[in-house]
């Protein structure tokens, strides 16, 4: 068995991280080694009984202090900037990503591809294409760690976090949880399988298709009776409270757009707002509507909430109107 | 010499007549005399005994973890037991050993002696803080006896409030209670250093040891209450179902991390600042030379304390915290390296044109520098945003903070023990055995923790009970190193108690050290100074070197 010394790199981004860490380590050694050498040299030269000259006044103390405060700091600032720049790359997905939904729960990872293909503890992605994982947790905080991509991101309950990457080299890599999440934390992992684009297409076509989150959400939306008041334009219903005596806002096309509130404020209808409005509907009521919606707190599982939000986010604006 | 007796209003009349020249150890031999003492030196001994017990307890947790990790498969411990072992190791070592270690043993014993005072400002409060510490320790022991807790020492929510199976409330009660002991000690030190310095003992004549304890005390008083609040909120959610952190109850799980690290990052400096103070004394004494750049070293302690409050977000780069906040926290974390580097450079410069005696305490001091520098530099790698994304929550982080807290703080604690042991007990220990302990410590420590840097960068997460087989070589080396390290810690537990009976008598100043504590007999009398000295010399200068003839008979 060979002794591992350095992790494989599955992407050009990982190569850039490796270059940064090696360069920064070299600078840090340049700063530290002279100190160690000086201490050893002084220790030998000025040991008791040696003939060296001793004592004497200290000269230019302030200048020396200023130099060893400023020079190492300014040199290391270059690496602060370099690391921040790569962090921006990591935090800013390019347009046109392949979006995969990931849900963490004690102690497994579930992933669902845009076509509905689902997998557990394994993640198949195409090489050379930007992939964005949209992640949430059903229980505690987890953290998705892809060491060969030099990436990780915490996965939190009650909100969506994102991690994007472009894996450039096909192969099978590690996928682990790094945020301590309870008894079987160490077993919460599996594989990241990077396939050539054709291989990924083959994999998609041979994998069992489950309904997508949005499709499951649509079924829930009807079953829970939401569609009775919120006329679903995406489903072909009438706008603005059609089909019911109760007036409730049409949800088509509102996702990620500002909505005027009854109290005069404005809110962006993002995932958190949609989620909060299902659980606590009267907190932030859209202008022009009565606070009559019942709360669904305690009646929905976390996964169902995600399905509903995914469905609402997928709705198109009613035809003939501008959002 | 220039040590002149004085009459500042405290050294005359009844107090003078009542001065008892017997050593503090002879002031009473009953258990009751120890448990009701208000003498800062005796309280220090009480702390020494208690924290040594907790160090042993924490070490048992470490041994279990290292034995389990010797093989990739789960074999020795179940996952649940393993989680409880590392949690107990963390809680005990952080709150019941590292935080009280140097301040409550050596700070307690030495600060009044170093500033020329007869006790701390609030002697009874000092004893109370020991009792609070013991009470907190009892909570922790009960937690352990009842089966322990499985959250990690960080108590992250909502795991700790909604999902953990262990005795979270009891463990939180222990840590909460221990916090009050910290606050009272910090308060006592601040008031003592402000108001009880001897005539002529100006701020810039204080030993660096006192400066670092002053900075530490500020952290203890200002940061610990935030930990107490965070723990109360955990109790509110777990015990009473009040929604604070769990999103299902309308809470925010990241809020806890902000509160926790607002305390726990300064807590790192609570552990390492006193260690830096100790090392400064060791270097200066055995170099026979004043500390280079005294004012810079003193101010660096305050700078570390102040900046320490502004870097907590570097624990949260991958948590989902704002990208822009992370950039600022990263910058401030680079900045806090500056005063730490100032200390290291000044220690090195103190050795220049010195006359160096290679005693065991100096070797502990030099080992501290070697290990602390390495821990500090890898801290800069972790402060770099994109690098932390990879290394966060791996054993790279574990290695980093053990280099600071064990390689740094524990090594300095042992250095302090070997330096002031003759003062505390009046006895010398076998120097060769002490030097052997340092050697074992340095080799054993590096063997234990250096492989964890490599493992972490390879992608080995922390708090893993089992791991991929290809990592085993490094884990085996680490476990072997831990065996050596255990030996290095056990050896002083043999020869130091041995010296109490058979060690050579030390005399007031066996090292030829500066500092007022070396002007009184070893062990010091109960009220320290027969006459309060008037200080007319600068710190660490030849005039400050105590001569036997200056000390009372």
TrEMBL record, chain A:
GO terms of molecular function: copper ion binding; cytochrome-c oxidase activity; heme binding
Pfam family membership, one: COX2
Domain Cytochrome c: 212-316
Subcellular localization: Membrane
Topological category with respect to the lipid bilayer: Multi-pass membrane protein
Enzyme class: translocase
Transmembrane residue ranges: 20-44, 65-83
Reaction equation(s) it catalyzes: 4 Fe(II)-[cytochrome c] + O2 + 8 H(+)(in) = 4 Fe(III)-[cytochrome c] + 2 H2O + 4 H(+)(out)
EC code: 7.1.1.9
SUPFAM superfamilies with a match to the protein in the record: Cupredoxins (SSF49503), Cytochrome c (SSF46626), Cytochrome c oxidase subunit II-like, transmembrane region (SSF81464)
PANTHER family, per database record: CYTOCHROME C OXIDASE SUBUNIT 2, CYTOCHROME C OXIDASE, SUBUNIT II
Stated family: Belongs to the cytochrome c oxidase subunit 2 family.
GO cellular component, one term: membrane
GO biological process: ATP synthesis coupled electron transport
Keywords attached to this entry: Copper, Electron transport, Heme, Iron, Membrane, Metal-binding, Translocase, Transmembrane, Transmembrane helix, Transport
Domain Cytochrome oxidase subunit II copper A binding: 95-206
UniProt main location, coarse: membrane
Annotated protein name in UniProt: cytochrome-c oxidase
From TrEMBL, chain B:
GO cellular component: membrane
Record's subcellular location: Membrane
Lineage: Bacteria, Pseudomonadati, Pseudomonadota, Alphaproteobacteria, Rhodospirillales
Recorded superkingdom: Bacteria
Domain Cytochrome oxidase subunit I profile: 34-536
Family of the protein in this entry: Belongs to the heme-copper respiratory oxidase family.
Gene Ontology BP terms: aerobic respiration; electron transport coupled proton transport; respiratory electron transport chain
Alphabetically ordered keywords of this record: Electron transport, Heme, Iron, Membrane, Metal-binding, Respiratory chain, Transmembrane, Transmembrane helix, Transport
Organism the protein comes from: Azospirillum doebereinerae
Gene3D superfamilies recorded: Cytochrome c oxidase-like, subunit I domain
Name by which UniProt lists this protein: Cytochrome c oxidase subunit I
Bilayer disposition of the protein: Multi-pass membrane protein
InterPro entries to which the protein is assigned, alphabetical: Cyt_c_oxase-like_su1_dom, Cyt_c_oxase-like_su1_sf, Cyt_C_Oxase_1, Cyt_c_Oxase_su1_BS
Signal peptide: none
One Pfam family this sequence matches: COX1
GO molecular function, one term: heme binding
Transmembrane domains' residue ranges: 44-65, 85-106, 127-149, 169-193, 214-240, 260-284, 296-317, 323-342, 362-387, 399-421, 433-454, 474-496
């Amino acid at each position: 068995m060979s002794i591992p010394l350095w992790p494989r790199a599955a992407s050009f981004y990982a190569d850039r991280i490796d270059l940064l860490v090696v360069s920064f380590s070299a600078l840090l050694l340049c700063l530290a080694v002279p100190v160690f050498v000086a201490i050893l040299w002084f220790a030998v030269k000025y040991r008791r009984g040696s003939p060296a000259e001793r004592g004497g006044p200290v000269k230019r103390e302030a200048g020396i202090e200023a130099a060893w405060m400023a020079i190492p700091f300014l040199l290391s600032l270059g690496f602060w900037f370099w690391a921040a720049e790569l962090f921006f790359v990591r935090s800013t997905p390019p347009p046109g990503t392949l979006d995969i939904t990931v849900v963490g729960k004690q102690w497994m990872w579930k992933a669902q591809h845009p076509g509905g293909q689902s997998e557990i503890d394994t993640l198949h992605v195409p090489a050379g294409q930007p992939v964005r994982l949209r992640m949430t947790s059903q229980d505690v905080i987890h953290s998705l760690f892809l060491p060969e991509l030099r990436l990780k991101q915490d996965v939190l309950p009650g909100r969506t976090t994102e991690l994007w990457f472009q894996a450039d080299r096909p192969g099978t890599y590690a996928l682990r949880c790094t945020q301590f999440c309870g008894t079987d934390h160490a077993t919460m992992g599996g594989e990241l399988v990077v396939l050539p684009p054709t291989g990924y297409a083959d994999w998609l076509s041979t994998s069992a298709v489950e309904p997508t989150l949005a499709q499951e959400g649509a079924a829930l939306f009807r079953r829970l009776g939401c569609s009775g008041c919120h006329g679903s334009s995406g489903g072909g219903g009438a706008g603005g409270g059609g089909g019911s005596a109760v007036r409730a806002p049409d949800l088509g096309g509102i996702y990620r757009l500002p909505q005027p509130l009854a109290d005069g404020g404005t809110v962006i209808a993002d995932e958190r707002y949609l989620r909060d409005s299902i659980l606590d509907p009267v907190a932030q009521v859209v202008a022009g509507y009565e606070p009559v919606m019942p709360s669904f707190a305690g009646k929905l599982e976390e996964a169902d909430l995600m399905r509903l939000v995914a469905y609402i986010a997928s709705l198109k604006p009613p035809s003939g109107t501008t959002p | 010499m220039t040590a002149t007796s004085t009459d500042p209003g405290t050294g005359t009349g009844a107090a003078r007549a009542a001065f008892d020249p017997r050593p503090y150890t002879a002031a009473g031999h009953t258990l009751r005399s120890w448990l009701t003492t208000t003498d800062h030196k005796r309280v220090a001994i009480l702390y020494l005994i208690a924290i040594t017990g907790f160090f042993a307890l924490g070490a048992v947790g470490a041994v279990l973890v290292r034995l389990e990790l010797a093989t990739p498969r789960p074999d020795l411990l179940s996952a649940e037991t393993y989680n409880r072992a590392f949690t107990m190791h963390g809680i005990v070592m952080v709150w019941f050993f590292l935080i009280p270690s140097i301040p409550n043993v050596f700070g307690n014993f030495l600060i009044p002696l170093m500033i020329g005072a007869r006790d701390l400002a609030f002697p009874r409060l000092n004893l109370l803080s020991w009792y609070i510490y013991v009470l907190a320790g009892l909570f922790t022991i009960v937690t352990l006896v009842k089966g322990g807790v499985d959250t990690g020492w960080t108590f992250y929510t909502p795991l700790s409030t909604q999902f953990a199976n262990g005795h979270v409330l009891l463990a939180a009660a222990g840590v909460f209670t221990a916090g009050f002991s910290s606050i009272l000690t910090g308060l006592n030190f601040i008031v003592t250093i402000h108001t009880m310095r001897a005539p002529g003992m100006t701020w810039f004549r204080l030993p660096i040891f006192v400066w670092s304890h002053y900075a530490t005390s500020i952290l203890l008083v200002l940061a610990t209450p935030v930990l107490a609040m965070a723990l109360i909120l955990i109790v509110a959610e777990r015990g009473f179902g009040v929604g604070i952190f769990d999103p299902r109850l309308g809470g925010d799980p990241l809020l806890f991390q902000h509160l926790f690290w607002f305390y726990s990052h300064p807590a790192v400096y609570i552990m390492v600042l006193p260690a830096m103070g100790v090392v400064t004394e060791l270097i200066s004494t055995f170099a026979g030379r004043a500390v280079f750049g005294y004012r810079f070293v003193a101010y660096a302690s305050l700078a570390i304390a102040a900046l320490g409050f502004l870097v907590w977000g570097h624990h949260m780069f991958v948590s989902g915290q704002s990208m822009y906040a992370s950039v600022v926290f990263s910058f401030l974390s680079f900045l806090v390296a500056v005063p730490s580097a100032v200390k290291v450079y000044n220690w090195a410069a103190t050795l220049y044109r010195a006359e160096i005696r290679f005693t065991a305490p100096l070797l502990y001091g030099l080992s501290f520098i070697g290990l602390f520098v390495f821990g500090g530099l890898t801290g800069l790698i972790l402060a770099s945003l994109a690098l932390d994304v990879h290394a966060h929550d791996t054993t790279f982080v574990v290695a980093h903070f053990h280099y600071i807290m064990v390689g740094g703080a524990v090594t300095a604690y042992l250095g302090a023990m070997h330096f002031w042991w003759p003062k505390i007990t009046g006895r010398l220990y076998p120097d060769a055995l002490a030097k052997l302990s340092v050697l074992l410590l340095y080799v054993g420590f590096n063997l234990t923790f250096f492989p964890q840097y490599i493992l972490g960068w390879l992608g080995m997460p922390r708090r893993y009970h089992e791991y991929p087989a290809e990592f085993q070589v490094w884990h085996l080396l680490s476990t072997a190193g831990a065996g050596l390290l255990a030996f290095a810690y056990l050896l002083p537990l043999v020869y130091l108690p041995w010296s109490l009976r058979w060690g050579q008598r030390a005399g007031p100043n066996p090292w030829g050290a500066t500092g007022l504590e070396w002007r009184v007999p070893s062990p010091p009398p109960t009220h320290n100074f027969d006459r309060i000295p008037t200080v007319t010399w600068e710190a660490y200068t030849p005039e400050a070197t105590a001569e036997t003839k200056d000390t009372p008979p």
